[in-house]
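DM from R.C. (forwarded with permission)

"hey, sorry to bug you on a friday — could you get me a structure for this? deadline for the figure draft is monday and I only need the backbone to look sensible"
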Amino acid sequence: MATTSRRKLGRRQARDLDIEIGFLEALLRRDPDYVEALQVLGDDYSDGGRFDDGLRVDLKLVALRPEDPNVRFNYACSLALTGQLDCACFELERSFDLGYRDIQWLQQDPDLAALRKHPGFRKIRARIRALKSDPITGN
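My reply, with the result:
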C-alpha cells in the first residue's frame, strides 16, 4: 500500500524538511547503519507523510536494534500509519515486553490514532491499565 500524503506543514517547513531528508539520505549512503541518522530520517519521513519510507527505515532499525523498546514502538507507529494494524498491535506488545513505558505518549501519539480504534487494541488497553496500577512502573 503506497501511503504518501504530506501532513499539514507550512511551505517553509516542508522545504526545510525536504532539505533535512536529502542530507540524511546522503549521509546514510556513506554509512547505512548510522542509527541516529536513521531515527531522525524515519521521523522526518513520517512528518512529511512518506509513511512507506518511514516503515522501511523502522524495519532497518529493528534489524539493527531488535531489543530496543523505542525502536519497536516507532516500528509499531509506522505499521499503524501504513494500515497494518494487526502487526502494529503485535509490535506495540513487543515494545512493552522490552520495557517501553511512556504510556502518556502512547495514549496521545497521533501516529496510533487508527490503532486505538482497532479491536486488537483492547489487549493493549488492558496492559496500559496494569502498568498504571503497578507501583513500580505506574503513573
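R.C.: lifesaver. The chain has a mean pLDDT of 91.
me: no worries. Residues 11-30 form the longest helix (20 residues).
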